[in-house]
Amino acid sequence: CDPVMENVQMLQHLLGFSDCEAKLLHILAVASQNTAVRAILEHTNVKNATDAVSIFAFLIGEDELLVRAALKENGPLKELRFVTMDAFPGSLHEAIHLQEWCAPCFSEPHASVADMARNFLEPAHESSLGERDFPHLKEDFDALTRYLAGVLKAKSKGVNILIYGRPGTGKTEFSKVLADSIGARLYEVANRFENGEPIASDHRLSYLKLSERVLANRQRALILFDEIEDVFPVSRELGYLPKGHVASSKAWMNRTLETNQVPVIWVSNRVDQIDPAYLRRFSYHLEVRTPPAH
Fold it and tell me: Could you report the per-residue pLDDT of 232-285, keeping only the tens digit for each?
């Protein structure tokens, strides 16, 4: 029994990995869980990524060209951020290794993909509010319910709703009420660990990408992606991004906004830090202001 391989096979069935991609993911996942295997990779010196590809091809018994193809930027292992590479590594482990965010997918047995998804995705809690609690947003509420109802019926791709405003204005609750009003099931991407510590923004974006695949065939599913202040690069006018920032790949983020298979409601306290080029890719913008006093 190989629980890591069983998890890999579940993901292969869901995401359409080739056999070569699945084998590569398997050995990297084993290395992330097994200190002895990881030590072997860490103590195998390589000068460049090309040498690393050759060695991994030998280890998994696949043609080197297939391994190279499995590691292309637009392939599922890189597009979904399961795997990262270093062009100038010191060891085989540094050259090609599993991203930290997906370790929970392999660290224990899972009965199903749905069981695995509980590590990063959960049904949103029901709101105690209703449409009547947002009278100042009635025009937008009506427009969004019509729009999302049509989107779900047509199964449109690349649908992203941006809801923003100061803390405490009810953005998250409004999103829940919106989903409930059209009979949709709202799923929330995790933003904190069970101990309350925040989850790194690059991990959350990877959770979002995988969540879309998990929910792609669910009827009337919507995704809530809350607290997104740090998942986009700051506007160029505000300065340069720090090295290693989550959104360093503009092309990757653009594809995320253009190809998502499940409509996503993005919620933020502010948007002034987001490059206008990204803002233009959202299907609908809604600023939630403080409700007027009765």
Answer: 755 444 444 444 444 447 888 888 999 999 999 999 999 988 888 899 999 999
| Burial class of residue 84, CB neighbours in 10 A (0-12, 13-18, 19+) | middle
56-80 in b/e form (b: 16+ CB < 10 A) is bbebbebeeebbbebbeeebbbbbb
What separation in angstroms does the CA of 113 have from each of 119, 208, 264? 10, 15, 20
Task: Give dist(CA 202, CA 196) in Å, integer.
Answer: 18
- Tokens at residue 201, please? 């923004």
Using alpha carbons, select from 281, 252, 268 the residue that is nearest to residue 157.
Answer: 281
Helix, strand or coil, per DSSP, at residue 266: strand
From CA 43, how far away is CA 58, in angstroms rounded?
A: 17
Nearest to 98, CA basis, from 85, 108, 79: 85
- Six-digit token pair at 285? 């913008």
Which parts of the chain sit beneath pLDDT 50?
235-248
Count of residues for the chain? Answer: 294
Residue 251: predicted pLDDT: 82
Q: Kindly report the pTM of this predicted structure.
A: 0.89
